[in-house]
Amino acid sequence: MTDHRLRHPHGAQHPTRRVAGRGPGWYRGDVHLHTVRSAGGELTPGQLVAAAREIGLDFVATTEHNTAAGHGDWSRHAGDDLLVILGQEVTTHTGHWLALGLEPGHQVEWRYGVRDDVVDRHLDLVRRSGGLCVAAHPYAPYESGTLAYPYRCFDAVEVWNGQWRSDLPWNADNEAALAEWGRNLAHDIHQGRWWPALGNSDTHLAGQLGTPHTVVYAEELSVEAILAGLRAGRSWIAGSAAVDLAFAATTGDRVVGVGEHLDTGGAPIEVRVRVSGAPAGTVSLHTERGTVLRERLPADGSGTVRWHTTARDSGFVRAEVRHPDRRMAALTNPVILA
């Protein structure tokens, strides 16, 4: 383990530092949350916005169950320091999905199931307006919560969902969703299309926001730029605001980060993961061959892991950071190697 400064792709020296003017940089956000307008929701938009600012989020999305009625509640709370993305949680009879980037008042139909064979029509309507469609909590253990649609129907997959509980933000449901996503990743990348992973709190109650949340590289803090970054997989998932991570693959003078392609021409590749905020945790690297490296972090939770490979041996690499009890602290989308 070597603890030193890792230069992040795009010139950033810190993975979540933004440049002045809210231009290109890394932004933290939670795009699955509910207010009093959703069943089980106990918070107002004002309370959620205050919580988002307190924990340092840069963007949130409003995703009430099957309604756009609350879209107008948020306009007075947003500002240059906090972007609000309009959306909806679409709770179909056979699985839930998030429609992100909706126009004000746009309500998505939810009264159907997998046997009706209509989900693609509703997904396309969201995409045509520039929106993003995310498979939500695929293994949620309640009626209609388990996803019957394949991941490939959507633009991204919520592999980590807070499931209403800030005290247990990683559980067997998330482990199953991550395992399915990970199993499909090698095949999907080989076929030229893969589905990025997201993490959200699914906030209903106080204290849940941001546990977990997604950290995305975007050209600016705007709806279009944030959704573009999520769509491209230029993101990683943090279990809390205390966790930080920089992940890069290097060959020669070329450096790329999560969601990017590294064309190597057969040259050796160095993969580096710098982590902080995961005391005594474990960093692991994963390729189509499975887990290829596992290394322990120091007691203070800060350190850098290095690993060497070639594109012949690894078509992609992604990282996980887990606490000593195996709960997830952070996980990344892959770097594609060729």
TrEMBL record:
<dbReference type="InterPro" id="IPR052018">
    <property type="entry name" value="PHP_domain"/>
</dbReference>
<keyword id="KW-0378">Hydrolase</keyword>
<dbReference type="InterPro" id="IPR016195">
    <property type="entry name" value="Pol/histidinol_Pase-like"/>
</dbReference>
<feature type="region of interest" description="Disordered">
    <location>
        <begin position="1"/>
        <end position="24"/>
    </location>
</feature>
<dbReference type="Pfam" id="PF13263">
    <property type="entry name" value="PHP_C"/>
</dbReference>
<dbReference type="GO" id="GO:0004534">
    <property type="term" value="F:5'-3' RNA exonuclease activity"/>
</dbReference>
<feature type="compositionally biased region" description="Basic residues">
    <location>
        <begin position="1"/>
        <end position="20"/>
    </location>
</feature>
<dbReference type="InterPro" id="IPR003141">
    <property type="entry name" value="Pol/His_phosphatase_N"/>
</dbReference>
<feature type="domain" description="Polymerase/histidinol phosphatase N-terminal">
    <location>
        <begin position="29"/>
        <end position="94"/>
    </location>
</feature>
<protein>
    <submittedName>
        <fullName>CehA/McbA family metallohydrolase</fullName>
    </submittedName>
</protein>
<dbReference type="GO" id="GO:0035312">
    <property type="term" value="F:5'-3' DNA exonuclease activity"/>
</dbReference>
